[in-house]
Structures are given as structure tokens and as C-alpha cells.
Amino acid sequence: MEVLAVLSVCLLVSLCHSASPYLKFVPKFSKDRDQSKWPPKFCHGLGCPRFTVLKSVKGEYEAREYSASQWVSTNSVGVDYAEASRTNFMRLFKYISGKNSAGEKIDMTAPVIIKIIPGPGPACESNFTMSFFVARDNPPRPTDPKVSLQRFPSFRAYVRSFGGYYMESITPWLKEAEKLSGYLNGTSYNTDYYYTAGYDSPFTFFKRHNEVWFIAE
């Protein structure tokens, strides 16, 4: 896979391992675990994009169909996954904290997704686009020009779920993406990019839920 090969090379020159300074700004996730129908348990009672499971292969992956949804997004380019994540997160967190056209606070949702497009060349600069799901109609406009609202059309994704605490390194995400690629041998999906999805607060250290997504073609 081209995307995985490029990512493997980029790992040699990326990733700092310092403590994430944005953690203290992150709102604690809801403790409401009532999961009658929706959202799934791993959304922790937060707003979560709606999907239907089309196929489930236990321990390997799910095929999901997501409904059209709205997100607020921002982008960074560089070689350091951790640094890009911190920069992007703070822009989005400021938006939901009131840095928007209405000056309103907006509820935290799940997951936090990152679209990763590996960059060619010796510098291995990748494109990182982080997005928060927006669970309300007619959200206020961002006032930061680096933040924008995006409408995602309905799409199908191949999703691999796994646990663990991975805030500083892209390596575990890449390993799970490689596993997902192996399970999908012969299946058509976009190989130019993939998504990481995290559902838990940084203050949650155990029983975390992470995902990697490949978008079906």
C-alpha cells in the first residue's frame, strides 16, 4: 500500500514525546453511560456521528455506513503527529469554547478524527486535518480563519477498533492501519489517506476506544 509505505518512512523523522500541554484544557467527558439505542457505548453519552454496521468480523474490522454529518475542522502540515495534534486541537477547542460568531459554548462530542495524508519527498511532511463532530443544527461560524465548518456526505468506511493510550505517537495507529489493510486484501478503498478516531478524554487511561478508518470507494 502506497500510503502505508510512505508513513513507515516518515516515522523515522517524526514524533516528539513530551507531555501534551493541551491536556489540562480538555473538558472531561460525560459519565453518563446509558446506552439504550444510540449512541454506542464507546461514545460515552456524547454526540456521535450516526452509522449503521453493514458487516462485522470479530477482532478484525467493521464495515460501516455513515449518515451525512457536519464537522468543524482545521489543518496543519508537518512531520510531527503530536505537535500537529496539539495545534489543531487547541484551535478547535477554542471554537467550541466560544471563539465563534455567536460567542457560544458548544458541547464536546466524539470522536476526534484526524485525516492523515502522507507527504512525498525526503521531508515526509504529512497533512493532518483534525475534526470535531458537530451535533447541532446551524452551528455558529468560526472566527479563526484556520477553522472551518465542513459537511460530510454519507460514506462507507472500514473500521478497526483497538484499545490503548496513544497521544504522542502515530506508530500504534500505523500498525493498526497495516492490520486493517491486511484484512481488506482485495477490497477497494482510498489509499491516499486514512483517519484516526479517538473517543476518550486524555484523563481516561484504561479501557480506551480507538479506531482507524479506511474510506470505501
What topology emerges from the helices and strands here?
Elements lengths: L1 H9 L40 E7 L3 E6 L2 E10 L2 H16 L15 E6 L8 E9 L12 E6 L2 E8 L8 H13 L10 E5 L11 E6 L2
Antiparallel strand pairs: 1-2, 2-7, 3-5, 3-6, 4-5, 4-8, 7-9, 8-9
Overall CATH architecture: Alpha-Beta Barrel
**N- to C-terminal separation?**
15 Å
Q: What level of helicity do the residues show?
A: 10-25%
Shape from CA axes?
globular
Number of domains: 1
Number of helices in the DSSP assignment: 3
Radius of gyration: 17 Å
CATH class, anyone? Answer: Alpha Beta
| Biggest sheet descriptor | 9 strands, antiparallel
Biggest sheet, strands in spatial order?
A: 1-2-7-9-8-4-5-3-6
Total E-strand runs: 9
Q: Provide mean pLDDT, rounded.
A: 84
Describe the overall structure.
This protein is α+β, with helices and mostly antiparallel strands. The chain has a single domain, classed as Regulatory factor, effector binding domain (Multidrug-efflux Transporter 1 Regulator Bmrr, Chain A), CATH 3.20.80.10. Helix content is 18%, strand content 29%. The protein contains 3 helices and 9 strands. The chain has a 9-stranded antiparallel sheet with strand order 1-2-7-9-8-4-5-3-6. A hairpin with an 8-residue loop joins β4 and β5. The chain starts with a helix and ends with a strand.
Give structural attributes.
disordered N terminus; 9-stranded antiparallel sheet; single chain; 3 helices; alpha+beta; Multidrug-efflux Transporter 1 Regulator Bmrr, Chain A; 29% strand; globular; 18% helix; 217 residues
